[in-house]
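[Automated response] Your request has been received and processed.

Submitted sequence:
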Amino acid sequence: MANIQLDEFHSLLAIVQSIDVGVVVLDRDYQIEVWNTFMENRSGILPAIARRKVFFDVFPEVDPAWFRQKFESVATLGTPSFSTWEQRPYLVRFKNYQPITGLEEFMYQNITMMPLRGLTGITEYICILIYDVTDVAVNRRQLQAANEQLQRLSSTDRLTGLYNRGHWEEMLRVEYARHRRYESRASLVMFDIDHFKRINDTRGHPAGDRVIQSVAECIRENIRDSDLAGRYGGEEFVVLLPDTDKKGALIFAERMRACVEALSVVHDGAEIRFTISLGVADLSLPTTGYAQLIEWADQALYASKAGGRNRVTAHEPG
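Generated structure:
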């Protein structure tokens, strides 16, 4: 009876050979019984050669554990199962030949597995439908990439690539909320470039921009992945150090001071050397809000300025 049913399916298959969907029918031992034109054209394997071969032998890239779980669930429950390209990019790795989306190496696929029952009601075969959704996947990925790019542009400073003030302050607010909830430690380092106006006035604004960029590069060399660095405004920078006490923040600040002092920026054939002044504050003292941490760090920064510049000062109570 099962053979009669499968023969009937072969007859129906002749009607859908021209449809751009892959059709594979497997028996309960994962052997291929039906192999349509879509599969032949994409794999280069003739139906006569594919028939009676074990599916995993033809497509060794298929994850056997995942596939068997899906397959047996369809066979046992007698209900279809679906898998989209977002869950798994493809079932079988076919090259992508579409001219518009030709930049992709492989075909993205949606998969449907359907039970084929014999006259006894027992599922004796599983039909697998493979849909080419490369154009949908590529469009979705391009849209996501564009949105991510817009997000980066809206949260970063164009000149330095560091976080801009709006985004950085929002991250500080989140970190402060974490501190209030879990009593976590955090420190803030604020600094600016000494005599920056003199650099702009004597060397020009392009030179000033290059100086600011070199400081940003120095920041990236010294921060951890968990640290948050931003351009606060003009020549002023901030670095939030989560899970860091004042002692650790002072070590980081001194490392930054020494890094900048060692910099040499060459612009229009002239060497520009400069320093920074830094202020450090932490959350070991009671605060009224995250803005107070900024105020403390700013006060410590100006104490460094008043003390002669090119130095690190920590905020102290009173």
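Summary generated for your ticket: The radius of gyration is 32 Å. The chain has a mean pLDDT of 88.
If you did not submit this request, please reply to this message.
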